[in-house]
Every structure is written in C-alpha cells, then in structure tokens.
Amino acid sequence: MVRIKLKSIFKRRAAKTGLPPGSLVYVGTPNNEPVQMLLMEYNLDAVREAMLQQVSEIKNALGKTQVTWLSIVGLQRTDVIKQLEETFQVHAMALEDILNTDHRPKLETNTENNYLYVVLKNLYYNDLKELQLEQVSLILGTGYVVTVQEKAGTAFENIRLRVRNGHGRVRKMKEDYLFYALLDSILDSYFVVLDKFNDKLERFEEQLIERQYDPDMLQHLYDLQREYLLIRKALWPVRDVTYTLLRLETTLAAKGIQIYLKDLHDSAVQTADVLETCRDMLANMVNHYHSHLTQHMNAVMKVLTIITTIFIPLSFVVGVYGMNFKHMPELEWQFAYPMLMLLLLAIALAMLVFFRRRRWI
Amino acid sequence: MVRIKLKSIFKRRAAKTGLPPGSLVYVGTPNNEPVQMLLMEYNLDAVREAMLQQVSEIKNALGKTQVTWLSIVGLQRTDVIKQLEETFQVHAMALEDILNTDHRPKLETNTENNYLYVVLKNLYYNDLKELQLEQVSLILGTGYVVTVQEKAGTAFENIRLRVRNGHGRVRKMKEDYLFYALLDSILDSYFVVLDKFNDKLERFEEQLIERQYDPDMLQHLYDLQREYLLIRKALWPVRDVTYTLLRLETTLAAKGIQIYLKDLHDSAVQTADVLETCRDMLANMVNHYHSHLTQHMNAVMKVLTIITTIFIPLSFVVGVYGMNFKHMPELEWQFAYPMLMLLLLAIALAMLVFFRRRRWI
Amino acid sequence: MVRIKLKSIFKRRAAKTGLPPGSLVYVGTPNNEPVQMLLMEYNLDAVREAMLQQVSEIKNALGKTQVTWLSIVGLQRTDVIKQLEETFQVHAMALEDILNTDHRPKLETNTENNYLYVVLKNLYYNDLKELQLEQVSLILGTGYVVTVQEKAGTAFENIRLRVRNGHGRVRKMKEDYLFYALLDSILDSYFVVLDKFNDKLERFEEQLIERQYDPDMLQHLYDLQREYLLIRKALWPVRDVTYTLLRLETTLAAKGIQIYLKDLHDSAVQTADVLETCRDMLANMVNHYHSHLTQHMNAVMKVLTIITTIFIPLSFVVGVYGMNFKHMPELEWQFAYPMLMLLLLAIALAMLVFFRRRRWI
Amino acid sequence: MVRIKLKSIFKRRAAKTGLPPGSLVYVGTPNNEPVQMLLMEYNLDAVREAMLQQVSEIKNALGKTQVTWLSIVGLQRTDVIKQLEETFQVHAMALEDILNTDHRPKLETNTENNYLYVVLKNLYYNDLKELQLEQVSLILGTGYVVTVQEKAGTAFENIRLRVRNGHGRVRKMKEDYLFYALLDSILDSYFVVLDKFNDKLERFEEQLIERQYDPDMLQHLYDLQREYLLIRKALWPVRDVTYTLLRLETTLAAKGIQIYLKDLHDSAVQTADVLETCRDMLANMVNHYHSHLTQHMNAVMKVLTIITTIFIPLSFVVGVYGMNFKHMPELEWQFAYPMLMLLLLAIALAMLVFFRRRRWI
Amino acid sequence: MVRIKLKSIFKRRAAKTGLPPGSLVYVGTPNNEPVQMLLMEYNLDAVREAMLQQVSEIKNALGKTQVTWLSIVGLQRTDVIKQLEETFQVHAMALEDILNTDHRPKLETNTENNYLYVVLKNLYYNDLKELQLEQVSLILGTGYVVTVQEKAGTAFENIRLRVRNGHGRVRKMKEDYLFYALLDSILDSYFVVLDKFNDKLERFEEQLIERQYDPDMLQHLYDLQREYLLIRKALWPVRDVTYTLLRLETTLAAKGIQIYLKDLHDSAVQTADVLETCRDMLANMVNHYHSHLTQHMNAVMKVLTIITTIFIPLSFVVGVYGMNFKHMPELEWQFAYPMLMLLLLAIALAMLVFFRRRRWI
C113, C207, C222, C231: which to substitute to probe chain B, counting the most B Cβ within 10 Å? Predict the structure, then answer.
C-alpha cells in the first residue's frame, strides 16, 4: 500500500502570503515542460483542431463556429494564464483561483463580462495505485469554453472523441452543453475512484471477516482513513457547486440545459451519499478491529489464567513434599506418592470443571 | 447468518464512465429472460388486462378508460425502455435514471411533457433470509402510470388484486390514486423489512442480556451494522421524495389526493424515526458488548490474581524449607512441619480476607 | 428492574401491509372488553355526564351546551371508531392514524370539515414500575372535543374533576381551552415520568460515586439506555406538534388561547431540554463506568505484578539452594541460612522501594 | 470538591402535575422568611428608595418619576406574586413561569398589556465553592421594571449603586436601559462562573500534565462533567433569549437601546463559545485520562512480563537439579554448580537483550 | 514542545464585571510602553507618513487626500482609544469591544455615523514556536481606516510597503480596498499558522507510522489537541464575519470591491475547511494511538502467556521429582532422568505447536 503524502492534502497556499491580491503565482511543483494549448472549434457539420502558441491566436477563431473550446494543460507559465485576462476579460482574481492549485472546489459568476468559472479537483489512481489530485478549472463564456489543467490527464479525452466523431448530442448543442459534458466527465471519474476505494474497503473487510489479523492491519486502517479524508476534501464541496449551478440565473446556460444540470447535481449528491456510507463503514471497521483486539486479549488472558491457576496450586503441593523437615510422617507412608498424584489429578480436574462452568473453555 | 455482499451496496455505476449523458445502459446483472409487459386498464365498471409485446401497442389503449397501468418487469433489454421515450415522451435522462439500478431514491418532474417519475428501492428478505434490494421506477402521466422493476417481485401484486376485485378506493379514483397506492405499498414493505431487522436486533439483544456470549457475536454485530447501512441507504432519502411530492404544484395530482400524500410522507418520516432508533440501539449494543469484554477480562484477571497472589508466597515458603543447607535448625524441630502448615493456612486466609475487603471475591 | 420489551418500541405496523389505505385495523393487543364512551357536556352553569352506547347518540347533545366532550376508551372495536366518520365527518385516513397505536406523535388539520386532531403518547410507570406507553388521540371540532385512548388510564381524570367542580378556567372557556387543558395534562405527566427516570439515573449515579460496583451494573446501565430510547421516541416529536399548533391559523382556536398554546410549547421544549441532559448524563455514566473498569483492572494488575515480581526472584534463589549438587560450598557454611534470609529480605525491600517510587503502592 | 446534587439539575416541576394551568405554586424549597420588596424611583435629578409591604403601594409611585424599579426577593409567598397581576396586569401564565423556579431561560412578550418578561438563571459559586443556580425574572413595562429573585443575591447590587451614585448612563436613560443593564449584569456574572470553572479545568489539566495521577481523578473528572452540564443548562438558552430581544419589534425598547442589546447578544454568543471550548476540553481530558490508564497498564504489564519471563525459565532449570533421581550424572561434577550459575546468568542476559530490542526496557 | 497557557484561551473578561456598559477597560497584560500612532495618507500620486501624539491631530489630515490610515499599536492607554470617540464619532460600545482583547471575532456596522468595524485575531508563532494570539480591530469610515493592535507585529508591514512603493492596486483605489487588503493580509497569515500546525501534525504522524512510540506521545497528542482548540477559537468565527461583510448593504464599500470581498470569504471558508480536516486527522491519530496501545498490550501479554504456559507445567513436573517420599519407584530407574528430560522437551514443543496454530507466534 502506497502512502499519500500529507503535503498533498495541505498544499502550500502559505507560499503566497504577503503578495498583493490578484498576484498570479503557481503554488504547485515547478517544472519546465511547455504549456500545451489545444483549440477545438466545431459546429454540427465540422470540427477543427489546432495547437496554439499564444492565447491571443484564439481571437481569429472566436465566434466563427458555434463552439470554441480552448484546452490549456500546464500551469507553470503564469504569463500564459495572464493572457486569459486580455483575451476573455477574465478577472485577475479568477486567474489567481485557477493558479492556486490548492483551491477549494467552487463556482463563481461574473455578470459584468458575462462568464462563469468552476474550480474542481480531478481525482484518479495512478499506475502505482497512488491517489492523485489535480486541479481543473473550466471557464464558460458566450461561445467558448476554456479548460485549464495541471497535467495532461485523460479526463477530457473521451469528450474530445465524442466531438470528433459526433457521438451523442455534443455537436448538436452549444457551449453550455460542452461545459456540462466536461463537468459530467469529471464527476463520472469520481465514481471510478470511489469504486476503487470501495474495493480497498472490501478487501480489508474480507480480512476482518476471515480473521486473518496481522499487526499491519492497524496501519492499513489508518491509511484508509487518510485516503478517505483526501477524497472527501475533493468531493464534498462539489455538491454546493452543482447546486449553485442549478439555481443560477444566467444567460450562459440555455433553458434546455437545465435537465442536464439536474442530472449533474444528482451525481454530486450521490457521491456525497457514497462518501457518507464509506465514512460509516470505516467507523464500523475501526470499532470492529478495536473490539477484536480486546476480544483477542481476553482469549490470551484466559489461556494464561487457566494454565496458571491449574498448575500453581499443584506446584505448591509438590513443593510441600520437597521440604527437608525431619518429621514429616507422610513421607514414610507406603502409598503416599501415588495417592498424592491422584489428589493432584483431582484438583486439576476440579479446576477444569470450574472453568467449564464459567464457559471459559 | 448470510452476509450481504458489499457489491450490493456500491453497484457499479462506474461502468458507465465515458459514455455520453443519456446513454441507456443497464448496469445490473445481465440475463436473457424476456421482459414482461403487463397492461391493466380500468375504470369503475371494468378491468382489462393484457400482455404486450411492444410498448407502442399501448397507444391503442391510452385514454380509452380512466386509468392505464403499464407494468414492465426486467431491465435487461434497453430497447424496450427506449420505447418509453417515443410513446410517452419520457426524456432520455429520465430513462437513464430508470436503467441505472444504483440510483439514489429521487423524484423528478417534467413540466414540458407533464409527467413525473419516482425512483425507489424495493427492499425485502428472500427465502435465504438475505436482504434484497431492487430498483423500482414509477412514471405518472395524464391518464397513465408506468412501473418499471428489475425482477418480478410481489411488490405490486396486492394492488393488482385490489384493482381486479374493486377493493378499496382504487377503482373509483384516477391514476394519481393508483400512483399513491403503489408508493404506499412500497413503503408498507419497508415496515416489514424493519420489523424483521428489529427481530434480529432483538434476538441479539436477548443473547447479550442472557449473557450467552460467544466469539461469533462480534462478527454478528458487525453484520447487523452492515445490514443497517444497506437499509438506511435505501430508506433514508425516501423522506425527501415524499416531502417534495407533498409540496409539488402539479396538475397531475388532484387536490383530493393531498391527504393521501400526507399519509405517505408520515410513513416515510416514521421509517426514518425507526431507523434512528435502530442506529441508537446498535450503538448501545456495540458499547455494551465492548464493556462486557472489558468486564469479562476483569473477572478473568481477578481469578488469575487471586490464585497467583495466594500461592506464590506459599510456594516461596515451602521452597525455603526445601533448601539443602546443613545448618537449618527449624528442620530438626519436632512440630515444625504441622506448625508451618498452620502458618501457611493463616497466610492464605489473610490473603482471602484482603481480597474480600477489596470486594474481589 | 423490569425490562421493557423491545416489541413495545417497535409495534407491529407491518401487520397492516397489503391492506388498502384507510383500512381501519387495530394493531394493538386484541381483547374483548367493551369500549367505554363517556359524554360530558358543560357550560358555565351546568355539567351533564352520560355513558353512550352508540357514537351517534351524541348528535342529540352537540351544540346544545357550550362544550361537548366525548371520551372513548378502548380501540378494539373498529366499528365504534368508524362511527366518528359519520358523526363528525372525520376522514378515514385520520381514523386509521388513531387506530394505528404505533403512530408517531403528530398534528393534522382538516380545513374542509374544520377539525384538527393530535396523536400523542401517554407515558407512565405502572405498579410494577414498568414504563407504559399508550396512544391518545384528540380531535378538536367546533363545539366538541373527542379523545380516544387505548386503556382507561388516569390521564384525563383530573380534568374531568375540574370540569365537574368548576375549578380553574375550564368551565368559563370554550372547547379550545378544554383541548389545551387535555394536552397540558398529558405533557404534565411527561414530567412525572422524566422525574422518575431521573430518580433512576440518580440512584445509579449514587452507586457509581459510592463505588459500589457490581457486575449487574453494566446490564442496569443498558436497561437505562433502552428506557431512555423509549421515552425519547414518545416525547421528542411532541415539540414539533406544539410548534405547529402555535403557528396554526385556524378558527378552531380563539385568539385568547394563544398564550396557553405558548405555555404548552414551552413545556414541550423543556421536556426536550431535559431529554438532552439525560442523554448527556447517560453518556457520561457509560464513559465513567468504562473508565472505572479500566482503572479497576489497573488496580488488579498492580497487585498481581507486585506480588509476582517480589516473590518470583526470591523463589528462584531458594530454588538454587534446593539443588542437589554435590559441590555447593555455601551449603556447608555455618551462617549461610540466616544470611540468605537477610539477603532475600533486602531484595524484597528493594522491590517495594521500586514500586513506591513508581507510585504503585 | 463539593458535589452538586442531581436534584438541583432536575427540580420538581412534577410537583405541579394535575393543577389547572396558571396555578401559582412555588416549587422551590419552602421557607418562612419574609419577602422583601424594594422600590427604587429615579430620574436624572433624584433617587428615592423605599421598602414596600404591599405591591399595590407602588401605584402611588408609578409614572411620577422617569423610572420605577420594584425588586422582589423571595418567592415563598405566592400571594405577593399574585399582586403583580392586579397592579401591572401581568398574566397569570407569566406569573406561573416566574414561580416555577425550574423554568428554562425564556423571553415572552405581551402586546395586549404591553409588557415583556425574561426568565433567566443567576449562577454563582457560594462560599463552599458549590455552584448555585437561582432563577431571576425581569418584567419590563412602560415606566417600570420589576425583578423577582429567589434569594437576596448580590446580582443587582452594583446596578443599585450606579443608580444611587449616578455612575454611567443609567440615570440619564429610561427603563429600557435599566432593563438592559440588569440583564448585562447577569451575563457578566456568567463570565465569572465560567472563569472559575475554567480554573478548575486548568488545575485538573495541570495534574494530568504533571502526571500526578491518583484514583480520585476519575471521580473528579466526572464531577467536572456534571458541573459543565449544569452550567450549560443555565447558559445555553440565553443566546436564544438575547437574539429574540434583538429582533423584537416593540415600543418598550427605544431605538437607541439597540446598540446595547447587540452588545448583550454578543456576550451571550461568547458564553456559548466558551461553553463549546469547555466541552471540547473536557472531552480531550476524558480521552487523555483514558489513554493514560491504558498506557499505565502497559507499563505495569511490561514489568510483570519482564520479571516473570526472566525468572520462570531460570526457576525451571534450578528445579531440574533439585530432583531426587538416583542417576543424574551432572550432580556429581566438580564445577557443575558454578557453571550452571553462569548458564543461568547467560539466559537472563539473553532475555534482557530480547526485551531491549523490543524497546520494552 | 512549548505548552500554551490555558489563560490565553480564556482571558479574564471577568475582570470587567460590575462596571457600567461602555466602560473602557484594557483587560490584557498592563505595560508602560508608549502607544504608537502612525498616520499614513496617500493618493495615486503621493504618500505622507507621520507619527502622531494625539488622535485629534488627524483632523488636519482627514479628507485632504484620498485615503487616511491611522494605525494605533498598544491598548494600554485607554485615553488614546477614547479619543476615537470624539474624532471619528465611534460609539463607546465599539471602543469597549476593541479594548476587550478577549472578544470573539465580529463585524458591527453603525449606520448613524456611517462606519463599520471588525474585530479579528492575529495569529502567529513567535520565535519560541509558541502560538501567539493578538487582537486586531479595523474601523472603516468615509475616507479613513483605523487599525488598532495590541503589539507591534508585522501583520500590516507588507501593506505599508505596498502603499509606499505603489505596488499592486492599493494606491489606485479607495479606503475600502485598503480595508480589504488589511483583512486579506490577516487571513493570509492564518494559512501560515495552519501550515506550521500541519507540519506538527505531519511530524507526529510520521512518528506514529514509523512506530517510534515513546511515553511522551500521549502528552504531545494532548498538546496538539489544545493548540487546535486555540486556533479554531480564533479562526472559526471569521467565516461569519466575511459572510456578513459580503452580504452588507453599505455605502462604505464600492461595488467594484465586491469581487475582493468574495475572495476574502473564500479564504475564510477554506481555513474552516482545513480546520475540519485537521480535526478529523487529530481524531484519527487519537484513535490510532489508542488502538496501538491495545495492540502493544496484546503483544506483551502474548509473550508473558507463552513463557508462563510453557514453563509452569514443566516446573510442576520437576517439582514432583523433587519430593522426598521414601517410595517413589521412578527415582531409582536407570534412565529416568534423561527420559524425563525428553518428555519435558516434548511438552514444550507441543505447547509451541499449539501457540503456532493459534497464530500467536
């Protein structure tokens, strides 16, 4: 079992202390890889894809087709993010949220420049079965969607495929549907994570039920609790986000999209539901394990007590006849030894009967 | 006691990941049995029943009598479910919910095509005393009710009987009353399940009170906790469903039906009440069992301590007179042996008095 | 201590499963005693009492005096209850609630026929000090109050006395005041039950504080927890009932009655308050008892450890000089025996000092 | 440490059962001391104080000066309280609340006769360091304030001083400010109690941290928990009272008084805050103490185990050479005894190394 | 690890008891250092700084430039604070809050004189790694901001730098932005504290995971719990403050500032989030540590039981042949001794197999 670093739960927002509000600082792990910008324009008839060098290049595309989707992968170059301010009039405070990869999931609307953005966590297990947490931001404006990710994950790959192949409704609908489809794809991935986490719980439970206890179980249980905390931290606030989205009065989302947003909120409520069940199952397991420890100690103590209480009186008696007094008449008797042995046997049997009555054996 | 599979708590919604929203996928156990479609038309005077081959056949019936009830059993053929979209203008997203047998109980209204649907869990113990969870969906439209179940249970059999025989009010009233009666019958079955679960709790409690402890009790308690979680997961959200139903402003439910919906909500509140009491009783039992373990260990330890502390000093004394020193005057005394025996008896009695004072014996 | 049957907590609502809504079924213990119907009519000047055979006889009385109070004792004959439907136009669903003796406390209003009814629990300790739970329903209509009880308790006896003797305000006021006075009398009886329950808690606490522990305390504590659950189940929802009553906009309650309803709600809030304190006290006691068990085990273990660690090394030493080696020079020494004895004493004292330092003795 | 009687937590409201609503019954400890009635009239220029014999005497004073304050000490004579009904038109139900010294803190307004009253608890430690709980009621009407206390405490003495000496704003303002000042003085005294209670917690914590454990600590902890329950019972509902006061729309409180009521509510919120911190601290202490017990048992068990496991094998070996077999060649060897001694030493050392490795010593 | 004094959690608000409301009393540690008053006036073009002797000197400055910021450090001279009343018409009750350094974080508005003030805690670790809690009050009026601190901390130093150097937006904007920037700087410092606290949690967790248990861990855990309580006490109410600020309808904050206040509230929500995760982590650690103690005791008990149960029967057997009976035929046998030794070995091996089967070794 791979341990999750606590650092990944509490990333260093503190690094930004003292800077003016709206300062664009990337708080994640710095790296030198280039930032990828993939442009995707489409309407019912056609799809065009292009890799951009500058955000500003998008201006040529905007408004020409029905939907423009700019996908930015990598946050290490803050100047790229800054271009969003000029191109889409996204406020510096919003960009600060996007770059602050430790941000709590949230939804913000800007009525002035008429866009809204959502900050979420993408959650997945990597090849080493470590839980990975990556921030994803989505900006929805008139005619365009911008997505910003830390790493090139596979989160949006299936949406891209659907756009290319014209599967489902995505090509027939506007940018609000794309926005919904992207969010839906993230929430779908939560169920994959919860599923794998539940598999872990199940395997642990199996061990508990089969009574294959080993000293590492305590540590394993603790790791499961930590993993749960990390998952909850990422998933729990999503319900508020989808609820706000559902209640939003905005021109950005057409009326027909409402049924999809409801579905989104339903999914978020269901993840919260599963999280609560996980929490209760973990609590039950912790209790069960603790009770098992006590029960096991009882069993150990009983063995000790039974052996000790049987043999200690017997040892005393044989000790008596090991004394060297001159005048001990029993020592001279003919059948003293076998009779004593029978007596000791009787004592031992009486003890056993006593323990039997108490249901200890 | 039969164990509930964890899988039945967290069914594989993850299987749908990556598919476009509104994709009709059956996530349950696939099987090849045919899907049953039973049509029931009735008004005050007459009842007609028929097995349909296609959903579309229903069109001939719709609107001819007062109430049309289409009962579909089996979700394995998604094409059958798909026909609901064409026939009743049920939205694809609603059908997705109906097919997703892991869905949380919910109520959704569609004002456009004027129907509402409810997704609930049917809960019952099968012949092996295993708790079974089956999804039931009900669609209420003008003049018709459609019910969709996974398996042919007995959930709606008594309603069917009442319709056939004209018992109760069902034949005198419209489709909204049928809808209510079906929901009421599901909620009634919850009380049967809670009753049987309470019987289990009672039997366990009886064991606790009679002090017939055995090592399996811990496992048994854990199984009860899991069963509780599964029941709560199915029942808890029902209260929200009935509350929404009660507050709904819709033309689908006549005003006279309000009193029945209130009754429905009352039942749901009562199940929630019973669930809370079950939770508290389980918590008390867990605590009680744990305290019992500690108390039992105390009893074991006391026996060990009493026997050990009485005999260890005595053994020491007899050990002293088992030493082989040449010059040990006591060994020569005439009455040393009986006097020593008396001394040992006195020590033992003093010990017993000491334990008596401490109320250990 | 008499144990409460779990059955009394979860009565068999399940018995009604499968019946049409509004079916009048008595779910309590069946018996053959006749149903008592006591009519009481009064105004400021006069009181008339009569035993009725049929509910319909009441029609002669209704409206002649200021207030008519029909008190029905016994639910076993559902036909009697059914007559309420004809005489007072009480809806069948309300009668179903009244007969379902496992119903949660609730208040329902019927604006059509202008009546309201309240279902409550009467709670008292019987002569065997067993907690008894009995359902009481009160119907308030224009000019009349109907009360329905399971058994002839003393719950309303003092109100009857007040009406007969003209004590207090009851004769000067209308049926709404009578309704209030009846509810107030039930809530008053809750304080008697809480008082007796608190006496039990107190006695248990006294035992805890005096350290008169005995093995039955654990069971006793568990019984107190169950009794608490039963009391809470009956009392907790009453607060919602009185709150609804207070907020009700109805012509049934005159404006002047408002101050009394506030008082009623205050009482209900106070019972909830006392319940919460009871819960916390029980939790504290459970914790305290458990800590005591652990502390007691510590004390037992210390005795065992002290005795064992003192005598085991000594026994070893005397064992050494009990060996039969030919060449053991010490055995020949003149003062070996007394010197060894002194040495052993020194070891024992050193041990004692060690334990003293560790504050074990 | 003096123990709080449980009776003081649950006073006998039950004593009133069966009496008509509005019956004036004093439920506290009866005594024969006379009831004191102190009248205080003042405006900016003058103060007049007088001891009254009858409440009705106040009529001569009412309305002559700006503010009239009647302070009644002692509840044992219900006839005195009854006079408030005639003189100030205070409703009998309000007087019942005032006399019921077990009442929950509450605020009630009477718009008809335009007065409001507040029931609070006065909380203080007496000279024996016992926590005392006394009910205080305040009635605010146009031009007058009436305060009713059980015992002559010092609660309002400093307000009286301020009125006499013209300190602060009290003489410049109206009866609403006096009302506020009296409430504020009660809330101030809560901070004194919380402070002393925190001192107790601190001292206990000090003991925990210094590891000066003694067997009475468990009982002491339990007493702290009970004292906390008593304080919470008196203080917790006060927040609701001040909140209601703040939101009240009444002519009794001038607009300028609003800022003071806000301050009052702030104080109440702060007491609730401190209470919560106390609760968490107590919970931490309970946990800490329990963990300490377990840790201590670990230490005891280790000593027992180390001593036993070292000497029991050694004792066995020396037992072997204490056997009386004729043919035991080792017994004849020249250096058998010292060699055996060395062997035993080696065994003991090996054991110690083993325990060292396990970090037990 | 340095311990936080409980006194710093519950400062002596009680000291003020008995004084009239609005009395200006400094409840902190008294000292004789002078109170510093730094005036900072600026607009887009220029900045002027001056040390004032009297608050009244500020009148010359007010309104001349765009923003006036008066920063007061030190609360020991209440006369200085009193001058705020005359100069800015701040109400005495507000000044009382500012001086009461134990006040709960809160926001108050005064519509009459059009100002609002916020009381917050400044939280930081000093050089001794002790957590320090200092009260900071901010008053926002038309054209000015007044900040009042207990000690000259570095909390606002970076804001001062930004004003001087014209970094960020501060010089371009009005006093409301300055007010926001100051609050933002305090909230930023909370993340620094939470970060350091999380480092402590991490180090403790590392110890738990590496199983480097030592007896001080229990105490250390308790200290972490106390530190958590102190941090929560300071941070938790901040969310209410920022929420009120966000919802405020006031002319003091321009509309453009709304986006910054939202950001502020986001930060406060995030601190609350981190606090909750800390609480859960602490709870997990406490549980884990306790389970470890029990598990460790199991291990100790097993060693004791194994050693004892193997050697006690063996000792008994050798004791038997140490008896001095005249007639014990085995003693004469030629190979009795080696055969007995083999028998004992067999018994020991059987015991070991038994323990192996039970998975104890």
Answer: C222
